């Protein structure tokens, strides 16, 4: 934190709650800072690593783009510099999925014309009137390798010509086989915070045989109904704590509500 940056305002007192933060290492600090301001003790344990790729577009870019949709802050970080050098980009309107993606665009001097409203998902973006009538429009989706196809499939079904900019890939960090088991063995690791289905699968894989049962018995904080359903299918014992979105403030608000419910049971 810089000398002039004010500490984040804490919406509640988390009183030493230890939170396993699974965001990629380069993206975890804002959430950790919010947790510390609320009195929690973040425990960073990245379950995703972001690897930049030489930007590749399929099919080739047209002469003009009508929309460019950034699906993540990483898509902005690794895709926007390349896009700005393309003749097709300046005419495009820009859309973002998620508050953090929109914030990254603002920081880069490229404010979004359209941002997915809560719960900040592909479904929420697709419901916006500006993207319902796209017949004949050229739409570029800036994203990572793999991931969901809902956005592209829906826009194509609505008549758009969909292009993909693949600018990065997500990988599973290499850790010692007992790394998570040792963290879980420490007293007071209260909840694991996970912000994507892929991260949830990676977390279980990184737990291995040594820590899987212990992890499944711990409370889990997730950022969407889709993640909550995935957690139930994977065998987590407790109903997941579900935030309104995977955004840092939404995840913190869900933790605050959980603590308040524990302290004041009805």
What does this entry look like structurally?
This protein is of the alpha/beta class and 266 residues long. It has two domains: 120 residues, Rossmann fold; 122 residues, Rossmann fold. The strands form two sheets. It has a six-stranded mixed sheet. α2 runs parallel beside α3 and α6 crosses α7. The protein starts with 17 loop residues before the first strand and ends with a helix.
Question: Can you tag this structure with a few keywords?
Answer:
six-stranded mixed sheet; 21% strand; 2 domains; five-stranded parallel sheet; 9 helices; alpha/beta; Rossmann fold; 266 residues
Strand content: 15-25%
Please, how many helices?
9
Overall average pLDDT: 93
Helix content: 25-40%
Number of domains: 2
Oligomer: single chain
**How many beta-strand segments?**
11
Radius of gyration: 20 Å
- Report how far the terminal alpha carbons are from each other: 39 Å
CATH topology of the largest domain: Rossmann fold
Low-pLDDT ranges: 1-6
- What spatial form do the alpha-carbon principal axes imply? elongated
Which CATH architecture of the largest domain would you pick? Answer: 3-Layer(aba) Sandwich
Identify the strand order in the major beta sheet. Answer: 3-8-7-4-5-6
Order of helices and strands: EHEEEHEHEHEHEHEHEHEH
What's the story with the biggest beta sheet? 6 strands, mixed
Q: Structural class of the secondary structure composition? A: alpha/beta
CATH class of the largest domain: Alpha Beta
